[in-house]
Structure formats: C-alpha cells, structure tokens
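chain below, 142 aa
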Amino acid sequence: MPPDDPRDVAPGTPADQPGAPVDQPPVASTDPVPEDGDPVLRVRVQGATLDDLRAFADEVQPDPGCRAVAKRTDTGYSLDVYLEQSRLDTARGARAAAQVTLDVVADETANGRARQQEVGTGDRYAARGEVPRGLGTKEQPR
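prediction:
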C-alpha cells in the first residue's frame, strides 16, 4: 500500500497526514504474574476414578495447561492443573473436591520470575569469533 493510503491512518488522525501511525494491538505481557498480582500455582488433583477428576474439572474449571493427561497412580489417577492462589480455597470448597485431594506442587509465578533472571542482556553474538553461552552445541569459530 502506498504510504498515503487512508487505510494506514490511525482513527482520529486527519487523512491529510500521510504515513500517520496505525493503532497497534496491545502487546501481551511476558510477566508470569496475572495483572492483579495473584500468583499461579500448579496443583496436583488426585482421585480414585477418572469420573472424580472429571467432576472436579467440570465444577472448578481449572487450567489444565497444554497437556491435560490423567496419570495412573497406585491409588487411582492424578492430573496437574493451574489455579490462581485466590481460587485454590474456592476449589477446595467445591462439592466435587470431597472426592479428590489437592496438593500444591509448585508456585509457577515464582518459577517464571526465577527463569527470567537467567535471561542475559545484550547481543551474545555481537563479538565476532566468540562462542555463545547456553545449552546448545558449541562449535568453534572457523
């Protein structure tokens, strides 16, 4: 599109200003803490049957993450889900919670913040001939 195309003009900007910036959608935050500061916990839900896990999930609507797979255990089945700290007490008080046990496995908000501290700054490829640091395979420069 040519720079003076009216479709490129931000709403509320006079059309006689070619190349005016277009409104951009907000960028998602990379902070693992929700906007309200409520930490996210990984919770292991254990029940004697798959129906117990299903009933809990249907009532509480926890976030199962990318892989909602119930694992067979010695006493039945378990499933890891994600809940905000504020929802944990509500989940424990749910009718279906009487048939399952809830164990907090990890504070994923704290884990996310710790992982962010490991991220370096700057351009690790800036110094020519320097081998980058990290977990990848190291190859010497030619």
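The radius of gyration is 24 Å. The longest helix spans residues 50-60.
thats it, cya
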